Amino acid sequence: MKQFYVLRGLTWPFRYLFSLLKRKLGKLDVLRIEVFVVLGNDTHLFVKGRVVEAYKQSRPSDKQNVFHNILATLRRYAGSSVPDAKIELSLGDRKIILITDEEGIFERYHKIGNEKEKMANTVQFSLVEEEGLKAEKSFIEKSVLRFQKTFPRAIISDIDDTIIISKATNIQEKFWLSVSKNAYTRRPFPGVSGFYRLLSSNGDYPVFYVSSSDWNLFDLIKDFMNYRNIPRGPILLKDHHMSLRNIWKSGGGSHVHKVDKISFLMNFYPKLNFVLIGDSGQHDPEIYAEVIQKFPGRVEAVYIRQVGAVDESREEELNALLPANKIAWVQNSTEAIEHAKQHLGL
């Protein structure tokens, strides 16, 4: 989808100016706050979301045909993001103003200032209604995800061609799957739910998902996980902001983005050790090798689903970084489950 990302980058000035013009003329629809992530630790809170014009989207079902799914995809991507909107974040007794960027995204890495903030279990997001801006709801409340105890392990997993069949190495097939299927008709790899539930003790241990899909697919991925009984966890997707850094790292950019997201999680939760799960279709083996070197002693095991022909040089690079019984190159979930039971004491 490289062409799609470049096109978004080249057209964002026009989309940005069009949104500002609609706001000035009072033509913006009612606005929706979509909250993606709310994470907390002892010292910081991290939130991310976006503001978009509220669009009507029927709930997906396994009865919907290709035509309905294509229309739903068009609605998802046609939703207009709203730049320069103000969001009031309420944390404990503090009010914090966030401003959306040119893609309608808001993000805050906030240093916790007092005990009330540290103990807050929920946060609220409210749109600051100004001229031309009207909120769909008065506020959105979200729980803060904290991990107050130690766990035997946490999991960080890729999504495309690791959990969900995406055909990521074939642009045409991936595009058709993306537009013609929905959360209930996309297919997981057999046995994925059982494998992830085994590793996470039926969802009790922390699970994080890091993908190069964009934020427009957040609701689809979340619904897919729920429907397929895959353990819930924060979903960190890829930003497509207009900048030289983001445009020119397309293709190789997924590598940088995923290393950044995994590094953030490891730094944000320094007491957690992780199992990394991915596939060999793109850059996961190289990404995980870099992570192991960057965070020695923090990776318990790595599972890579083999896609296509075996590349011995790629395997050797990753295999050299952990004991032989901690790296598993598997063809399916059955092999992964057998390895985990034998080598992780499950």
TrEMBL record:
What positions does the domain Phosphatidate phosphatase APP1 catalytic occupy? Answer: 154-306
A GO molecular function held by the record: phosphatidate phosphatase activity
**Can you name this protein?**
Phosphatidate phosphatase APP1 catalytic domain-containing protein
